[in-house]
Design brief:
Strand content of chain A: 5-15%
Number of strands of chain A: 12
Oligomer: homodimer
Largest sheet of chain A: 7 strands, mixed
Keywords (chains A, B): DNA-binding, Transcription, Transcription regulation
Distance between the termini of chain A: 65 Å
Strand order of the largest sheet of chain A: 7-6-8-9-10-11-12
Domain HTH lacI-type (chains A, B): 14-68
Helix content of chain A: 25-40%
Number of helices of chain A: 11
Region (Disordered) (chains A, B): 325-380
Largest interface: A-B, 66 and 66 residues
Protein name (chains A, B): LacI family DNA-binding transcriptional regulator
Order of helices and strands of chain A: HHHHEHEHEEEHEHEHEHEEHEE
GO molecular function, one term (chains A, B): DNA binding
Structural class of chain A: alpha/beta
Shape of chain A: elongated
Chain lengths: 380, 380
DNA sequence: ATGAAAGCGCTAACAC
DNA sequence: GTGTTAGCGCTTTCAT
């Protein structure tokens, strides 16, 4: 209707020249208006915007990218899981990216993906992103070490050491070891002689970090370090681990690397007649939405995904827009241990080999309303 | 190093002409090779690929998009939540999109976002996507009905009726009503006189669908339709609902619109002395990863996000690549009710007003190992 | 404060 | 089978 090419199919999107013509200015002026450049009179700006509105003009991003060499988009590599941690981080990233005016492109790396991280990053590079976020990468078999593709955009790695070298690499989401440590110390403070660890899959850096925090905390307090059981993040693996641990009367406290495993673990313990928290205390990690409502309500470490995403992206965008400048400093997120009903002091020591069931804990029965978010204390 | 512009900064990405020159062919031939077009001799193809490899050539997508008018990317609008359902769907979508050779752009609509769906779609249109997936939209206040922006690309709406008109609109992820219905019928089959419903927020179409299935099932069987309680998907809201329902001795079966609410509900019931499943049966929806490991293991409706995503995207891509062709038909996903321990026949009827605790269920105590995935039956 | 001209790196249509 | 010629719709640089 507007531009008379004759074809009715879909009336060809208006271009900036069309707007310029209608507004009676040059095409460049339209460009100026849309880029908020200075030196456009208010009157002209108004005319241009009005013409654009009338035509339903949207600027063509491909042309823009081609001419400017920047796509104004950020790519994120995530694992293709709906696991609470990675999914929450992704949502946090999206929120911030949009706020900063960039577009978001997403690719997944599946566990066992042959191309893996390199493939994912390559695909983003193909798409021409201005920066890359790698969220919770896992260790690749074989492709250990450097990426084969040269990465010429800034990269933000959330929750892991550098998987490769790029022009600029930033880190974020550290401090999981400190968080784990706070969990362990909570249990030691309650009087547990030591704490067992149900670790996450060690190909995940997140799992390694938590293991490391556990190790460090026990070492710092001169405690025994019992053997580690490795799960796969799933409640099923936590359940399997629980069956093992239930058989060992020495176990009075367990730190699980995520809440799902903690829930499976608690179930297995309960089925074996070892009550939580009376006989065994359990701490999880993540603070998933149901953590306060399972039985017993789970003591756990809350991750602040939004904060982590926000802080990391601020630094990434800074690096994109100020290529020569110094990288902004990272800051460890605060540790936030949420104490609920799954932890309490250990049962009194007694000669091994005798089965017994101790009295109920003071005021901690299942009839207490779960603290909505209550009982949380912030360490560090 | 290769192209001598003198600047060492970052040695300017090679272009297809550079490859052409090195391979001793025309630039167009390079284009042919990279687009897998026919009519290139094996020998030339080899030379081109080798030259490209040597130069580290990656084709410029902005230029490609500008010249061809297609971005080879699909945009997805999701809610900015890590809720299991939406997050799983997003992951499913990503997986399929990559397989089909498209890139994925993601924008969120936050609840209460002023721009809302229109803003999100507009932002994708700005980015120049070839197709749009709208995942689980919620009803917008005010902006009811049509989008103000013209959408000239095919749109796939997952889990909702048409929020607007576009050139092509496809639907997917229907059938939630049938799934809800299967859940209700499972409870009726067990002998419950009727089933209460803890609904999701009714601004979500997914919540409406489940409510509708509940309503239809009760109507079909001529049962009472008790008042509906509306939650917000959270375990906390399920807990609140549970306190209400616990006070009503008539309640013997509850269908919760998602698992998180079901878990909160069960906790509130337990605290009020109403055991699940002995006194009250509960069915959830989603089959979240921990559903089999909470106490009691949750009977729930499993959603097949991968299938839904795959099926929907196949149709979307078809619509993108065959603009004139008939839309591929949709197919309802199969209903998959996973029966675990949170449901059983109702306790024997007795005069109202008397409190009692009935015997334990036959072989259904907490010491049964949770069926990993067991006890599932597929309806419809 | 505004405009003219020259590409950005590719694909499309046609020639050979 | 391969090359040539034009743009795609912007941003950039430089004039004015």
């Amino acid at each position: 209707m507007t531009r008379g090419t004759g074809r009715e199919q879909s009336p060809a999107a208006p271009r900036s020249v069309d707007v310029a013509r209608l507004a009676g200015v040059s095409q460049k002026t339209v460009s100026r208006v849309f880029n908020d450049e200075p030196y456009v009179s208010a009157e002209v700006r108004r005319r241009v915007l009005e013409a654009a509105e009338q035509l339903g003009y949207r600027r063509n991003n491909a042309a823009r990218a081609l001419a400017s060499g920047r796509t104004r988009s950020i790519g994120v590599v995530t694992l293709g899981t709906a696991l609470y941690g990675p999914a929450s981080l992704l949502m946090g990233v999206e929120r911030v990216v949009r706020d900063t005016g960039y577009a978001l492109r997403v690719v997944n790396t599946m566990e066992g993906d042959p191309a893996g991280l390199a493939g994912a990053v390559g695909s983003l590079l193909d798409q021409g992103v201005d920066g890359i976020v790698i969220s919770e990468p896992i260790e690749e078999e074989g492709a250990e070490g450097d990426l084969t593709v040269p990465v010429n955009v800034p990269v933000l790695v959330l929750g892991a050491p550098p998987p490769f070298t790029a022009s600029t690499v930033l880190y974020g989401a550290g401090g999981a070891d400190l968080m784990a440590r706070a969990a362990i110390e909570h249990l030691l403070d309650l009087g547990h002689p030591t704490v067992h660890h149900l670790a996450g899959p060690q190909r995940w850096y997140a799992a390694k970090d938590r293991l490391e925090g556990w190790r460090a905390a026990l070492a710092a307090h001169g405690r025994d370090r019992p053997p580690v059981i490795e799960g796969d993040w799933s409640a099923a693996s936590g359940y399997a681990a629980g069956r093992e641990l239930a058989a060992d009367p020495e176990v009075t406290a367990v730190f699980a690397a995520n809440d799902d495993m903690a829930i499976g673990l608690i179930r297995a313990l309960a089925e074996a007649g070892r009550r939580v928290p009376e006989d065994v205390s359990v701490v999880g990690f993540d603070d998933i939405p149901v953590a306060a409502y399972v039985t017993p309500p789970l003591t756990t470490v809350r991750q602040q995904f939004d904060t982590v995403a926000q802080e990391g992206l601020k630094r990434l965008v800074h690096a994109i827009e100020n290529p020569q400048a110094e990288a902004l400093p990272a800051s460890d997120p605060p540790v936030h241990l949420v104490v609920r009903a799954s932890t309490q002091p250990p049962p009194p020591r007694r000669p091994p080999g005798r089965r017994r069931h101790t009295a109920s804990r003071p005021g901690g029965g299942p009839h207490d309303p779960p603290p909505a978010n209550g009982g949380s204390s912030t360490h560090h």
